[in-house]
Design goal:
98 residues; alpha+beta; two-stranded antiparallel ribbon; Glutamate/phenylalanine/leucine/valine/L-tryptophan dehydrogenase dimerisation domain-containing protein; Glu/Leu/Phe/Val/Trp_DH_dimer; oxidoreductase
Length: 98
Amino acid sequence: MNKKSTLFEMAQAQLDEAAGILNLDSGIHSILREPMKEFHVSIPVRMDNGQTKVFKGFRVQYNNARGPCKGGIRFHPEETIDVVKALAAWMTWKCATV
């Protein structure tokens, strides 16, 4: 099976590899594999032409064990929750080690 991995699956694979090298406790590893919270919103906006258009958005809070959740802001009509989860994971790990 030659399935292309998503960005979040790649982030999880990186975590799995690091967890193996560090002999990370399996409970902590399980916690770090998934985001703490995902927020999904739909915002209806009345456009200049009178029509209503619904914009969807999301935010991921990956893990706040080492302090406040931090992440980037991305505005793009084709952004996916998968990409935002991966970016949130990487930001969490980066801020925990710096």
